Amino acid sequence: MQDNLEGKAWLWKLRFRHLHYDVLKELTKKKMVHELSDMDYIKKFGEGCVFGKQPRTNFQKKAKYRARRCLELVHTDICGPITPKFVSEKMYFITFIDDYTRKTWIHFLKEKLEAF
Fold it and tell me: Which of 18, 29, 46, 71 lies 20 to 30 Å (CA to CA) from residue 52?
């Protein structure tokens, strides 16, 4: 019985993206989540919890290089697959951001190969 409750508590922790156990208890107490029952949360750490607590280096306050003309430097990123698919059956999108003007373009793609 204890293993079942422990597994259920761990499942709720995963559902909330490794939310701290004290916060889960607070959600239970205030009845803010439907079907989240009052259970004894054992403070157990998983790999995701440990990596989430790793210290991060700060972002630079100012860029080392900034473009001086339009399209001199373009930042790009691709994202996907996204579910559910867009209305047009496309599962990916790619962004292009001009460093100088900050103008942004977004293109939707059916496959990553279309990025090239």
Answer: 29
